[in-house]
Write a structure and sequence with these properties.
The chain is mainly β. Helix content is 13%, strand content 40%. It has a single domain, classed as Immunoglobulin-like (Sandwich). It has helices at 2-20, 98-101, and strands at 30-32, 39-45, 57-60, 63-74, 80-90, 102-108, 111-113, 115-116, 142-150, 157-163, 171-177. It starts with a helix and ends with a strand.
């Protein structure tokens, strides 16, 4: 019995060592978005980084994600928000939404900022632009997703995307400098 327990402990220690030994790589680049309003620093940290892919997009588990751009808007409480646009592809075997598969967080000055809803395309519409993150996609489908975060000030916004269950510590990240 002691030998079996010792073997199990040895296997667990080897598995932990192997999981912790992968070295993530990071790329950084700067540029302007299509509107010329935000300067971005893009980083991707993944165990299997593809150097030919832009650093603000990649595969997280069964999903392909690109952090595209951002705009400034007001929410239903008339608070300034940053609306981040993502491309999301469901490569799993089941229907999934962005919200059920991935976690997108935003930070200012190292502090997480809150997500918000009630952000509308225009004042005549009650179609919340953030509803797209709840739409289920069939396997192989791609859609554009928008998530809004309440700004604490006009300092840079760091956006990070991970899988909800993230055993590999893989993440995509992009920094937006607001102007």
């Amino acid at each position: 019995m002691k030998k079996i327990l010792l073997m199990l402990a040895l296997v667990a220690a080897l598995a932990t060592t192997a999981a912790c030994s992968s070295t993530p790589s990071t790329e950084t680049e700067s540029g302007n978005d299509s509107a010329g309003q935000a300067t971005t620093e893009q980083t991707q940290t993944t165990a299997e980084n593809d150097s030919s892919a832009p650093s603000d997009n990649g595969t997280l588990g069964d999903y392909t994600v690109a952090i595209k751009d951002c705009t400034i808007a007001k929410n239903y409480e008339d608070k300034d928000c940053v609306v981040v646009t993502f491309d999301f592809t469901n490569n799993s075997d089941t229907n999934q939404s962005f919200e059920s598969a991935l976690s997108a967080q935003a930070f200012q000055n190292g502090v997480q900022i809150d997500t918000t809803t009630g952000v509308y395309e225009n004042s005549d519409s009650y179609d919340d632009i953030t509803d797209s993150s709840l739409t289920n996609l069939q396997p192989g489908a791609t859609t554009e997703v928008k998530k809004a975060f309440v700004l604490s000030d006009m300092s840079p916004v760091d956006v990070e995307v991970t899988e909800w269950i993230n055993l590999s510590n893989d993440k995509l990240a992009k920094t937006f400098t607001l102007e």
